[in-house]
């Protein structure tokens, strides 16, 4: 459950530029939201060790954080990770392997919700990709309008490598950034791009050395819109994204997901993949 703890104070504990400004914090264990009072930009930080895998609870808290950013009328939102080397490992395999059926339904519905809110948000969004971003992690980053990444990491939709299929709205999200042919190739290969390659093809906008620099670049991007009327900007962004958003038939997508995940060969594949991750 989202229980925001909101305080207003000067924070000598925070590093970088955030420390200079009074900040409001709305935090839970899994997601920390800090709004810089000077810029009005919210930094939403995922904090689920060891790899920010997206389980039901993390997704619920992300969903609530997005509601809070919208409600607070923040100038924009930066999505980041508290972990040193991982942005998000994507969907938590344990939610899909030998699942409790009621929870599985909740899990997928909440993922849809997070995507609809993030991809369809009116406020400006940017991802500070300070660690690897496979599959669902890549989806979150791609749902933002701008991506800044540290070097020597990986990002991509690797689902086919796991023997599963990325839903069509994952594909549309990548198609919002890259040419269709490039997307088809990336998805059929289950390609994980290095930071450098992702930058070369335009999946990532900038490469920086540190998380602090990534946050600063994301802030600069969001501040580009400071003088653009908020509503006009929001409607323009949403017009560009409407087709992809409307294509998602939530009920049908849920039924398809439940059916596919419960197939014995998919369960076997997920089990083997999970074991291989553990043995690593
Ligand atoms: C033919 C028909 C087809 C089928 C259709 C079927 C279904 C279709 C429907 C839906 C599609 C579903 C879409 C899914 C999208 C996804 O997001 S799936 C998840 C994909 N994610 C990954 O492949 C990433 C896997 N992880 C990694 O590559 C690495 O962990 C990572 C690079 C992120 C970090 O590396 P490192 O720092 O070295 O950490 P470790 O690898 O050592 O991992 C630490 C512990 O974390 C556990 N873990 C890692 N990833 C996950 C995860 N995604 N879920 C759960 N747990 C994870 C790992 O096992 C380690 O645990 P341990 O410490 O050993 O207990």
User: Which blocks of ≥5 consecutive residues have pLDDT under 50?
Assistant: 1-20
Terminus-to-terminus distance? 33 Å
CATH topology: 2-enoyl-CoA Hydratase, Chain A, domain 1
SSE order? EEEEHEHHEEHEEHHEHEHHHH
The proportion of strand residues reads: 15-25%
The molecules bound to the chains, other than polymers, are: ligand LH6CIYWY
For the sheet with most strands, the description reads: 8 strands, mixed
Structural domain tally = 1
Give the integer mean of the pLDDT values: 92
CATH architecture: Alpha-Beta Complex
CATH-assigned homologous superfamily: 2-enoyl-CoA Hydratase, Chain A, domain 1
Estimate percent helicity: 40-55%
Can you tell me the overall shape? globular
- Order the strands across the largest sheet as they lie in space: 1-2-3-4-5-6-8-11
Number of strands: 11
> Based on helices, strands and strand pairing, what is the structural class?
alpha/beta
CATH class: Alpha Beta
Number of helical segments with 4 or more residues: 11
Keywords for this structure?
280 residues, alpha/beta, 2-enoyl-CoA Hydratase, Chain A, domain 1, 11 strands, binds ligand LH6CIYWY
């Amino acid at each position: 459950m989202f229980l925001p703890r909101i305080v207003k104070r000067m924070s000598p504990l925070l590093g970088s530029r955030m420390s200079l400004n009074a900040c409001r914090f709305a935090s839970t264990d899994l997601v920390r939201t800090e709004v810089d009072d000077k810029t009005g930009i919210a930094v939403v930080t995922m904090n689920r060790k060891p790899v920010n895998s997206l389980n039901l609870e993390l997704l619920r808290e992300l969903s609530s954080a997005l509601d809070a950013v919208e409600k607070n009328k923040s100038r924009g939102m930066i999505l980041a990770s508290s972990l040193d080397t991982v942005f998000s490992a994507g969907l938590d395999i344990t939610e899909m392997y030998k699942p409790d059926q009621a929870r599985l339904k909740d899990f997928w519905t909440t993922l849809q919700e997070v995507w609809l809110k993030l991809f369809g948000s009116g406020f400006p969004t940017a991802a500070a990709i300070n660690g690897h971003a496979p599959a669902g992690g890549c989806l979150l980053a791609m749902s933002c309008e701008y991506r800044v990444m540290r070097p020597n990491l990986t990002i991509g939709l690797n689902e086919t490598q796991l023997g599963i299929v990325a839903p069509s709205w994952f594909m549309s999200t990548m198609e919002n950034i890259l040419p269709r042919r490039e997307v088809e190739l990336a998805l059929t290969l289950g390609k994980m791009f290095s930071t450098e390659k992702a930058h070369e093809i335009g999946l990532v906008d900038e490469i920086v050395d540190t998380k602090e620099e990534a946050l600063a670049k994301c802030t600069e991007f969001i501040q580009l819109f400071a003088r653009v009327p908020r509503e006009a900007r929001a409607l323009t962004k949403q017009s560009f994204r409407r087709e992809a958003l409307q294509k998602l038939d939530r009920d049908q997508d849920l039924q398809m997901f439940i059916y596919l995940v419960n197939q014995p060969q998919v369960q076997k594949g997920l089990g083997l993949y999970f074991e291989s991750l553990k043995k690593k």
